[in-house]
Specification:
Blueprint (H helix, E strand, L loop, with lengths): L1 H22 L2 H27 L1 H18 L6 H13 L14 H5 L7 E3 L3 E5 L6 E3 L10 E6 L4 H11 L1 H37 L20 E3 L5 E3 L17 H5 L1
Parallel strand pairs: 3-4
Antiparallel strand pairs: 1-3, 2-4, 5-6
Helix pairs in contact: 1-2, 2-7
Length: about 260
């Protein structure tokens, strides 16, 4: 759920940036710049937090794993499933080794002095029981209470995780730095676009950016029948009410009266 939420936020931020660049909307570009700043600062904060509190985080993680081991098998929950997945995928058993499972409440009820019974995920090959998540290599532990397992993982998951981090430390750091570098590059490009769109908008306001548009109002197809009289009066034969100071009201029918 958390990964889906983070992915959704990243997609939303990317859509905002693309929409702002495509529509030349400076407000959307400002929102995109703000989101990039928050993401970069958040990544740096989390990285520094992990580095400065590494020992505290390790102790908290160990406490959580110990609690899961103690309560494992009492009820079917996500913690048991997660522990099984970690042990099976990491090919490890317990926090520091198989003996950690002697802390389990169910194993203690069996009065075992050695880890003869372990979760089935601690074995390379196993045939689990339908009603139990426990397996054993010993023949005296039979179904339906126990499944059959072979080849126990001897390495603890904590050591396995430390080895994996050491082997892939450069890759993890490189990916983190590359992501931050890409985001910084996006920030620079967005700032450039923001300034460019601002200059373009200013040029439009100053009428320095010429945009040619057809003028359809220059000629509407009407003719002007106005003319000047010899005495300087203006006469419009289409409008008999327009007369000059030395000219009486003109009407086309007046021509018949003159003849």
């Amino acid at each position: 759920m958390g990964l889906l939420l983070i992915g959704g936020v990243v997609v939303l931020v990317s859509v905002i940036g693309c929409a702002g660049a495509n529509s030349q909307n400076r407000l959307l570009l400002l929102v995109y710049i703000g989101c990039l700043i928050v993401l970069v600062l958040g990544q740096l904060y989390v990285t520094l937090l992990l580095l400065l509190n590494r020992d505290k985080i390790d102790n908290m993680l160990n406490e959580v794993v110990d609690q899961v081991i103690v309560q494992y098998g009492n009820s079917s929950n996500r913690a048991d499933t997660l522990m099984d997945n970690v042990q099976h995928s990491g090919k490890c058993c317990g926090e520091t080794g198989p003996s950690d499972w002697l802390k389990n409440s169910y194993i203690q009820s069996l009065n075992l002095s050695s880890p003869d019974v372990l979760p089935c995920s601690c074995f390379t090959v196993y045939h689990g029981s339908f009603n139990s998540s426990w397996c054993s290599e010993l023949l005296n532990y039979t179904e339906p209470l126990f499944g059959r397992g072979n080849n126990t993982f001897s390495q603890g998951c904590s050591e396995k995780l430390s080895d994996w981090l050491q082997e892939n430390a450069l890759t993890i750091v490189g990916m983190a730095l590359s992501l931050i570098l890409i985001q910084v590059l996006q920030f620079v490009i967005t700032v450039y676009l923001y300034r460019a769109f601002g200059k373009k908008s200013a040029l439009k306001r100053r009428n320095l950016l010429v945009e040619h548009t057809p003028n359809d109002d220059l000629d509407d197809g009407e003719e002007n029948y106005a003319y000047m009289e010899p005495d300087g009066d203006y006469v419009d034969i289409n409008n008999a009410n327009l007369v000059g100071p030395n000219h009486s009201a003109y009407h086309p029918d007046d021509q018949n009266l003159r003849y």
